[in-house]
Amino acid sequence: xxxxxxxxxxxxxxxxxxxxxxxxxxxxxxxxxxxxxxxxxxxxxxxxxxxxxxxxxxxxxxxxxxxxxxxxxxxxxxxxxxxxxxxxxxxxxxxxxxxxxxxxxxxxxxxxxxxxxxxxxxxxxxxxxxxxxxxxxxxxxxxxxxxxxxxxxxxxxxxxxxxxxxxxxxxxxxxxxxxxxxxxxxxxxxxxxxxxxxxxxxxxxxxxxxxxxxxxxx
Length: 218
Description:
Structural class: mainly beta
């Protein structure tokens, strides 16, 4: 992350200890360790997935393997680690197999791929017949410390270049694990201290990998 600016996430996240306590309590339920895939392939994805806070950092629940990279000189100070999905919520879709409804970056539609072991974002999005995208509001501090608003619109790369994969392994609580991996082009805008709206002339990139564990299921 640049030294002149700092992202402040718009969504409030659970603390690592609270997540641990809830996950530990879940192990007493009969269905907590179940993959929930007795129905169609999408059943293995549906539910809430929480980012594994021990990856990449055991001490910072907000740490992430994803970063924003900007070459536009008006936005290079915003480059650095940025967590969008502290949790991912998949529901059964109507036009697509899945819809991600956490509200962290509304709204992406997903289809099952990889023999039922991965989900990818179709392009074009069949719901709106356009390039898929989702939007994230953020705040940043400028060089003088003034906190200002910004907006980033993510356009996931096609196919396996952006995917959510079931890992076939479980964490210490017995919950199935999965991985979000890939890259997305990012159109970004921000308001500066003079109330001028600045927009990227060259898209930024959002890329990386984070691991999740399944917290709820249908």
